[in-house]
Amino acid sequence: MNAITCRNLRKTYPAKPPVEAVRGIDLTVQVGECFGLLGPNGAGKTTTMEILEGLLDATEGEVEILGQLWGRDDDAIRQRIGISLQETRLSDKLTVRETLQLFRSFYPRGISPDEAMERVSLTEKSRALTDKLSGGQRQRLAIACALVGDPELLFLDEPTTGLDPQSRRQLWEVIHEFRKTGRTVMLTTHYMDEAERLCDRIAIVDAGQVIALGTPRELIAKIGGHQVLEFRVSSGTSPEFLAELEQLPAVQHVRTAGETISLAVTELHTTLPALLERLRQRNLELVELSSRTASLEDVFVTLTGRHLRDDAP
Ligand SMILES: Nc1ncnc2c1ncn2[C@@H]1O[C@H](COP(=O)(O)OP(=O)(O)OP(=O)(O)O)[C@@H](O)[C@H]1O
């Protein structure tokens, strides 16, 4: 049995012109996996998640959750999943404990509100009204609400968007603890570090389609180079020079962003001396040079020519 199976998922929003938000997505998520949908704003991640969560009807396609079908076994599925939406509206008239008691009342079985608070480290705030919580605490409460029914499968839509680094790490820890019990997590994010850190497998989504699927390592291996060499030269570059770079040993891809040139390389120690020699022959002065390990951001940029986040350099 898989935790999630969907076939040929499509969603077209009625608008003028209609918006094809999801354009034929097939996914299989195994029990115990943490699976991530990674993609830029508007890629169709939330739409896909909401269909998988049973909150939105697909235009086409079928979704099976833990061996049961949306449209046939809805009540049974709802007892087995927990959902944390991109934005959770909590009643500001309720305390943390009351909020969790309310959510607990929706499920015939589950964990106690106290245990849910404990799991997300909110015990000290049990009597605080929800509108007195910080952003990170509110988000942890939203996840506690998703955990209070003791779900087998947890859906998290952009769980850490807008949070400070410390709050993000706290949330990662909550997810990590949940997974220790062998349960499944499906999340969306546009933070590549989050996807790399949390997910066993990732589907990179762009314009309503999966453009790459695999473990973070497999995806990075797909672009050919595990290292990225970035540099700038003083006097600009020419198309001939860029073409020459592609011929350097161990270079898989050449990319430019403004004046910065990035080379995806398989063997840094082979490429670097050859690059320096080429610059010397062309009388080009190096102004900046750095190397780093390739990331999922590099995968996305290589596949689409765009960055995952609008504010990325
Ligand atoms: N109710 C709706 N009516 C019409 N278009 C919609 C509706 N909801 C979403 N869309 C459009 O569908 C596309 C996919 O949106 P979706 O929210 O699924 O993307 P996303 O990847 O989750 O992006 P984000 O990270 O910004 O949430 C976008 O072009 C969006 O504008």
TrEMBL record:
Gene3D superfamilies: P-loop containing nucleotide triphosphate hydrolases. CDD domains: ABC_subfamily_A. It holds the Pfam family ABC_tran. InterPro entries: AAA+_ATPase, ABC_transporter-like_ATP-bd, ABC_transporter-like_CS, ABC_transporter_ATP-binding, DrrA1/2-like_C, P-loop_NTPase. Coiled coil: none annotated. Residues 4-232 form the ABC transporter domain. Its main location: membrane. It is found in: Cell membrane. It comes from the Bacteria. One of its GO terms (molecular function) is ATP binding. Keywords: ATP-binding, Cell membrane, Membrane, Nodulation, Nucleotide-binding, Translocase, Transport. One of its GO terms (cellular component) is plasma membrane. PANTHER family: ABC TRANSPORTER ATP-BINDING PROTEIN, ABC TRANSPORTER ATP-BINDING PROTEIN NATA. Belongs to the ABC transporter superfamily. This is ABC transporter domain-containing protein. It comes from Tuwongella immobilis.
